[in-house]
Amino acid sequence: MRMPTRLAIALGVLVGALTAVVWSWTFTPLGRLDLQASILARIASLQGTSEMEMTPAAREAANQMTRRMRGDLDAEGAVVFEDRAISGPGGDIPVRIYTPDAPGPLPLFLDIHGGGWWMGNGFPFHDGMLAFAGQIPAIVVSVDYRLAPEHPFPAAIEDCEAVLRWMAEHGERLGGDPSRLAVGGASAGGNLAAALALKMRDEGGPAIAFQYLQVPATDLSGTREWHSYEEAYEGYVLTVPGIERMIEAYVPEAQERMNPYVSPLLEGRLEGLPPALVVTALFDPLRDQGEAYARRLEAAGVPVTLHREDALHGFLGSPHRARRIQSMAAALVGEALHP
User: How crowded is residue 308: how many other Cβ atoms within 10 Å of its Cβ?
Assistant: First the structure.
């Protein structure tokens, strides 16, 4: 009897020690991380980013990991979806159309996925879009745009523009109202959504009623110093070296990074842009440039809601925060599209 008792005590001590170690990971120089997020951050730190590859195999692995980390989100009401291909400047563009069971005609929302401009293809955020479409409610069109490094700038924004114009022209056939149109995206998708809003304003394109920018990259130029780059340089999943590698793949020509359709923060005039929701994350190198863009929009007279969440980039490891932010975004988008 002594051996099992001693073994149980030893195992209890070991478990307690391991729990204490893991719990200690939640304490960071920037504040407290959620437990699951802190574990993800520690694993990512151990793996490192210096050898990050941007190959098709690495892309598929990243997308699979995204699907596992996102978890399931319940749709509000019945939402159906269908896949189509839209003609674009580089060939057919895959889209997935989410239609809630709600009285129409419904407003339209263009969803632009994140993934550092090189991953996120194949609709890995499917569950989230099912829920989002039902929460607004709106017809959500997710665009599977061309990716870097195979297709650098301006391929991605050209594809997004082509789908937006298609929505404006053919939205009625979908049961939608093209006069009520919004765009949004996370991370690289937030960058593309902001750039698309600028481009449509400049070119007199389809009128955009609202833009939802979640943890957006707004300055790819490398010409400014960001405090959040120093604070969250590494150790929080998304790292500055990783960001720099993705920018190099997306915009190989350094001079092109000064283009406002690449770096919306560098646009000199932000008047006339649609109202915006900008959501940033505390433990994120991109935090400060997202908030700087929100402040510049506000200074230009654009109605802006800015919200910072105490989470990792993209709210990884914090599903309860992701759900709450999505509900908040759906409510604000819905207010703009259902006046």
Answer: 15
pLDDT at 27: 79
| The token pair that represents 222 in the structure block | 């490398």
Q: Which residue is catalytic, options 38, 187, 263, 318?
A: 187
Q: Residue 170 catalytic?
A: no
pLDDT in tens, 191-243: 999 999 999 999 999 999 999 999 999 999 999 999 999 999 999 999 999 99
Q: 4 in a domain, yes or no?
A: no
CB 110 within 8 A of CB 133: no
Reply yes or no on whether 338 is catalytic: no
pLDDT, tens digit, 9 for 90 and up, residues 235-248:
999 999 999 999 99
pLDDT at 50 over 60: no
Considering the candidates 111, 219, 284, 288, report the single residue annotated as catalytic: 284
* CATH at 293: 3.40.50.1820
pLDDT band at 14 (very low <50, low <70, confident <90, very high): low
Q: Is residue 134 part of a domain?
A: yes
**187 belongs to the catalytic site:** yes
Instruction: Judge whether 3 lies within some domain.
Output: no
Q: How far is CA 195 from CA 179, 183, 268, in A?
A: 20, 11, 13
Residue 324 · residue 224 · CB < 8 Å: no
Element (DSSP H or E) covering residue 7 = helix 2-24
- Host domain of residue 52: 9-337
According to DSSP, the β-strands at 27-28 and 31-32 are antiparallel
- For the chain, the domain total comes to 1
Cis status, amide bond into 252, omega within 30 of 0:
no
Q: Is residue 60 part of a domain?
A: yes
Asked if residue 168 lies in contact with residue 183, where contact means CB atoms within 8 angstroms, the answer is no
Per DSSP bridges, beta strands 276-283 and 27-28 are unpaired
